[in-house]
């Protein structure tokens, strides 16, 4: 792992947005659904653009996407797009490969297109603590509900100790070169990748968990839009 604090590193951001949002059940991909006067993805990208350190925001899109280019955020000088893949990991790999000028020691933030309630405070906490860690870090929230393990019949068979459990959020922050290597390793060994941290873990790393706000929800089901609307109305940076 890179641990040279003397290295001057730039900061990039990647937004995988090639998914079609099948669990949501809407005609439009969930990142393009209306939310508080904009689309979901516009709020997500705006949260990144509020961080002046970010050099570029690269959005990985579905090959047939004709919607993103019509959004106001697509015309921002720091925002670029690239064609993504069938899976999240593939989209992130393609976006990283398209970051022209990125060095191995640069940092990359990967943020979900469907997390519109990201606060500036969480971004700054992740950058501060993550760049002090030799590997990097992810925003995460402690599990507060009682967790059950179920069987094939959907019967509760065990109560799981939640004290060491966290929900992985985004952004997730890693060195450019190490993240590319980890994703390549997982692809070549057919290892499942659910987020960037899982790729780093399977590559031998232990990302730092930076506690973030429970308001940083991912739009997955229709009710989530109502919750996100309330959070945005109240101000995610309050």
Automatic annotation (TrEMBL):
The record marks 23, 30 as: Transition state stabilizer. InterPro entries: IspD, IspD/TarI, IspD/TarI_cytidylyltransf_bact, ISPD_synthase_CS, Nucleotide-diphossugar_trans. GO terms for biological process: isopentenyl diphosphate biosynthetic process, methylerythritol 4-phosphate pathway. GO terms for molecular function: 2-C-methyl-D-erythritol 4-phosphate cytidylyltransferase activity. It comes from the Bacteria. Catalyzes the formation of 4-diphosphocytidyl-2-C-methyl-D-erythritol from CTP and 2-C-methyl-D-erythritol 4-phosphate (MEP). This is 2-C-methyl-D-erythritol 4-phosphate cytidylyltransferase. It comes from Zhongshania antarctica.
